[in-house]
Amino acid sequence: MMIPANYAMPKALFQAEASRFGGNRLNFVGKRQRATPTILPNRRFRREKIMKHRWLVIVGAVLPSLLLAQNVRSPQTQARPFARIAIMRALDGHTVELEAGYIRHLEWHRQAKDTFGWYSYSVWASTERQRWIIYATFGRTAAELSNPVSPAEDERDNLINVLPHAQFLGNGIYEFLPALSRGNGLPTPTLRAEYTTVELKYGNGKAFEAALAAEQSKLQGETLWYRLVVGGNMPSYVRLCPRASLAAILDERADQALPEKVNGLISMMTVETLNLRPNMLVNVTPEPAP
Known about the structure:
The chain is of the alpha+beta class.
């Protein structure tokens, strides 16, 4: 922090500091003028000593404020609580074409210098959505989601490469819930993940979240809860549990069971297993295989 050129020490403090070094009282003239001693032996030496101490007093006063300012997060480092999670499936007979077109579309994102991290998963274990593709970006602010990279060009490329081969079946904005979770809201890009979808009976959101928050300290592995904000039936939640292998998911299934007290709050719950698609990632580096 720069000290203003026109800074003037208060008179009482100036006289106290002068007395501290053994001199007679000084004439305090005021702002922008030097205080000159009436009687002061070795005047130059004592004046330099007083000025040095004056700067120490000033620095001592402003340094705590500087340190406090450094600890206040800037807008760039504030929490990014939102995620966009969407799902699509290939039209009948178009699986190969969809995957090839989607890979080309992701390359467009790279060429456009998109800064979002894009995850892609294939649904592996599911009664209805096997081989569907879930694509998502996590850790975003509302402003970032409102200003994606080149939206018109994005849509044009999407129409050429993806839409002719896909049916889009969901697109929601979710809010990360740290009080229910173990993790920072950005999933570790492991090769597998357990994906749980929960729809509640209307009006039960607060009770559901309170029950999960009470059990949060018992979570052992990465467990990320998100609440649907817009894009579907509410109250709805998804839980993402990244794991290195299918064995890890199976071994932890008892630990991932929801508290019994929430059973009466739930209208529908689905648990699926996802495979990360390393060739369908943007600004995301997959974890190495175990």
